[in-house]
Amino acid sequence: xxxxxxxxxxxxxxxxxxxxxxxxxxxxxxxxxxxxxxxxxxxxxxxxxxxxxxxxxxxxxxxxxxxxxxxxxxxxxxxxxxxxxxxxxxxxxxxxxxxxxxxxxxxxxxxxxxxxxxxxxxxxxxxxxxxxxxxxxxxxxxxxxxxxxxxxxxxxxxxxxxxxxxxxxxxxxxxxxxxxxxxxxxxxxxxxxxxxxxxxxxxxxxxxxxxxxxxxxxxxxxxxxxxxxxxxxxxxxxxxxxxxxxxxxxxxxxxxxxx
Length: 259
Fold this sequence. Notes:
Radius of gyration: 19 Å
Largest sheet: 8 strands, antiparallel, barrel
Strand order of the largest sheet: 3-4-7-8-9-10-11-12
Low-confidence stretches: 1-28
Number of strands: 12
Number of domains: 2
Shape: globular
Helix content: 25-40%
Strand content: 25-35%
Mean pLDDT: 86
Number of helices: 7
């Protein structure tokens, strides 16, 4: 079933320069994130319903993992968005799977015939429908599969390899806290830094990061548990050669997908 993105125009909307967002189509399946946000000053705030498989991070670029099944009710989380002038058109926060997960939530609205993108803490997905007026924003985000990567994602992975050239600069005791003053760098922080350098900001579910996680699902074995990238980096059996091989395999996955 196809959906269009609508903007409900009003004098109030036009007066603050929101303008027309445009149209987009997306195919809706079983995993749809639904949000109803109410205007509060310059922000829109409210609940979003997260399907069980999405909340479990079981959705990859190819779709839902074949070994995963979930019948629990949607999880309701709080979200907020504010209009932006650069990078994402809307930017705010959404609760992630774990309390410590980054909460960055952004929207790129459709333009020039390109579909919209919802950058959520659970992955990057297509916007199926967006309705906006002076008091409310409603969203349907199609989360049956993550959006494919772009050339930026290959640049991110190549730059991450450059940031860890030797054991002398590799941080093997990662805690997922990345500082500009650090003298050693972990796999996770290399991905964070390369993403910032390439795109101007960090998003925890950037497709490049997701490609690395997909490879870890294949090769991580008992080295990964709660935080895949950190766990693999810190495991006693992981060598720097393994880190480089992991990143090279992730980039190869992007090439296989035509990127």
